[in-house]
Amino acid sequence: DHQTILRAWAVKDFAPNCPLYVQILKPENKFHIKFADHVVCEEEFKYAMLALNCICPATSTLITLLVHTSRGQTAPWEAFRQLTGTKQTLNRDSQQSPEQWQKMYGRCSGNEVYHINLEDSTFFAEYEGKSFTYASFHAHKKFGVCLIGVRKEDNKNILLNPGPRYIMSSTDICFYINITKEENSAFKKQEKQRKKHESKLSYHGASRLPVHSIIASMGTVAIDLQDTGCRTSSGPTLGLPSEGSKEGRRPSIAPVLEVADSSSLQTCDLLSDQSEDETTPSDDEVSAGLEYAKGYPPYSPYIGSSPTFCHLLHEKVPFCCLRLDKGCQHNYYEDAKAYGFKNKLIIVAAETAGNGLYNFIVPLRAYYRPKKELNPIVLLLDNPPDMHFLDAICWFPMVYYMVGSIDNLDDLLRCGVTFAANMVVVDKESTMSAEEDYMADAKTIVNVQTLFRLFSSLSIITELTHPANMRFMQFRAKDCYSLALSKLEKKEREKGSNLAFMFRLPFAAGRVFSISMLDTLLYQSFVKDYMISITRLLLGLDTTPGSGFLCSMKITEEDLWIRTYARLYQKLCSSTGDIPIGVYRTESQKLTTSESQISISVEEWEDTKDTKEQISYRGNHRNSTSSDQSDHPLLRRKSMQWARRLSRRVPRHSGKTAEKINQQRMNLYRRSERQELAELVKNRMKHLGLSPAGYDEMNDHQNTLSYILINPSPDTRLELNDIVYLIRPDPLAYVPNTAPSRKDSFCNTVGQDTREETQL
Questions:
Q1: pTM beyond 0.90
Q2: Which N-terminal residues, if any, form the signal peptide (predicted)?
Q3: CA 564 to CA 577: how far, in whole Å?
Q4: Which of 51, 160, 230, 312 would give a disulfide with 360, using CB separation of 3.0 to 4.6 Å?
């Protein structure tokens, strides 16, 4: 950073009018180059993305795909079938085959963010004077584009989903997600032909709407005005409308209004969270100390952090109470279980508590996150944090730290890994300067693999130095599917693809991230000067009054009546004002299970009469150790056969003794590697005085694959457990005078400039 700062100063001194694009590592160095036109701070983006991955799965993959230019890459399906050795036919009604998910995921990956003036646009020109949500819904319905934000001509601030109260103006700049920009689309050519016959195709009424627009919106206008009320915070997200008078009629959805009326807006204070935050807290909340306040954090660990309205404590926590694993005079808790948290933990494993780690906490404590959904945050640090960092985090509720390492099982158990929803493993700075370049991730990868084997259902999000190393995440040596993906990646790299790794399962599922994936963000800002601002707004690094925020909702069985993505778009726009931008889908992975995961019981061995395998295996692995048996099911069969023959030669015991010996022998036969690992963890928990209850639930692991569909087509069918990415309107925009200024906040009495000068 010091060298980068000096170079930036040199350029500014030599050519003051030259636009300056700077990328630095540490957030505390930002104020040295605040004169630059565009600045990307790696640690800020990294921690904010890792934080959002915990509440909006695969946010890092979503952002990476949006900032990369691609043509909607698709894998060669016939070659893929040959590589995997599969000859199955593709079922059009099913999306379970590997080829189908890659086809959908690859096609949607070509979506990017573009901009255009409303008056010059074919997509949005007709929505002048209409509400933002009306324009977004109808543009998606007609053209398949997703309008996500606007910027006024006389204002530099971008507003993501300003909500139904915002009225579109002819001078507005519209930001939308699409496969290609409007100027290169086929609609532009059709528009030129349409203008030649405009007089014939126009409706000369008061509204002067084109005929094709009226026809396209007839289906929406004809829908009954039902279920116009907004959801409550405790009810389902997509309430089923009341049944119509006609039997067999499909449930209807309220239309998206051209201009939102005041009555509907008053009932749509969705995010003010009246049921949770504004009412009198219950006795349980008071006793547990959950009466949080909302305000701006009084202390930031570095200069230049954007002020964010957050959930805060009325009084800061003593530093001794921030230590999770050591009791003090205020509490006697020494492990995560003793605290009795209602929500699952988010654990962050890092080498040191750098200033950038502050940006992991802020998005998870932002004011628009419901109070009852806040997850406790545990920082597992190799080195003790500094006092100034503890000063910054002691105002946030349920934030703790512990000194330990992820390669120590006892430390993991103490910090509550068995109660965790997500485990975030941050790349260590000390390993980035390895002698062999790609060996920098070696220790991180092996530690994460150990975590995966011990806690198979734990959601682990890993940061790597080199994206190429993601092929070793959750590595299985004899997985034919991963081997086929590896060969495809080599072919994509030979073609010059800058996203050759995009079909790797860990990246598609958002379980791995590398900061080098964001290098293109700085390059894209040369053509799209708004990309850094939009990315910071999506990640919660910046907050603009009236601008929305990124969140997600899960499709449950009660929501399947909505059926398609287009109907979901209409339902959200007409009720809550949310704008969906994509879907995160998880499917059962019908792949060949790794041999290391297979255990064969005695009954299965008796039923299996595969003599060819036994004969061919008879001459191999004569001197294999017992540790190899878990990796080779055939060797396990051989050992069981040997044990049975041996048992026939030993003298027969009578009565209960023989029955007990036989039972123990059967248990040993059935014992798998998974059970051995589980027994190891349970023994350590008992040794530490921790209850092993709940650990068995973490071993309910099923082979699944997950991927992102950015701005899918309107006819895309929704499936159970789909997670929809939403840009939700700013709740404070609906409730005037809700957010105090920084100067009026209860925990801050000075302005930003004064604070920065004081800290400096």
A1: no
A2: none
A3: 18
A4: 51
Q: Which two tokens stand for residue 511?
A: 């379980």
| Angle formed by the axes of helices 673-687 and 442-454, nearest 10° | 90
Residue 302 to residue 34: CA distance in whole angstroms:
14
For residue 399, which phi and psi values (nearest 5 degrees)? -120, 125
All structural domains of the chain: 293-459 (3.40.50)
What is the predicted pLDDT for the residue at 573? Answer: 92
Here the contacts of 447-451 (C-beta below 8 Å, separation 24 or greater) are 447/406, 447/407, 448/406, 448/473, 449/473, 449/474, 449/475, 450/407, 451/406, 451/412, 451/417, 451/423, 451/425
Residue 289: Cβ within 10 Å count = 13
Residue 310 is inside which H or E element, if any?
strand 310-312
Q: Are 417 and 694 in contact (CB under 8 A)?
A: no
Give 402-433 pLDDT, tens digit per residue. Answer: 999 998 998 898 888 888 999 999 987 766 55
Burial tier of 2 (Cβ tally within 10 Å: 0-12, 13-18, 19+): exposed
Structure tokens at 265: 């807006």
Distances in Å between the Cα of 678 and the Cα atoms of 319, 535, 598, 683, 718 are: 35, 42, 15, 9, 36
Please identify which residue in the block is written with the tokens 């003036």.
117
Give the other-Cβ count within 10 Å of 378's Cβ: 28
Please tell me what DSSP assigns to residue 281. Answer: P
3-state secondary structure 630-655: CCCHHHHHHHHHHHHHHHHHCCCCCH
Read off the amino acid at residue 649. R
The C-alpha torsion from 344 through 350 and 355 to 361, rounded to 10°, is -10
Which residue would you say has higher pLDDT here, 91 or 708?
Answer: 708
In terms of pLDDT, which residue wins out, 395 or 440? 395
Q: Burial of 74 by CB count in 10 Å (0-12 exposed, 13-18 middle, 19+ buried)? A: middle
| pLDDT (mean) for 67-94 | 46
CB 563: neighbour CB atoms within 10 A?
14
DSSP 202: B
Q: How confident is the model at residue 66 (pLDDT cuts 50, 70, 90)?
A: very high
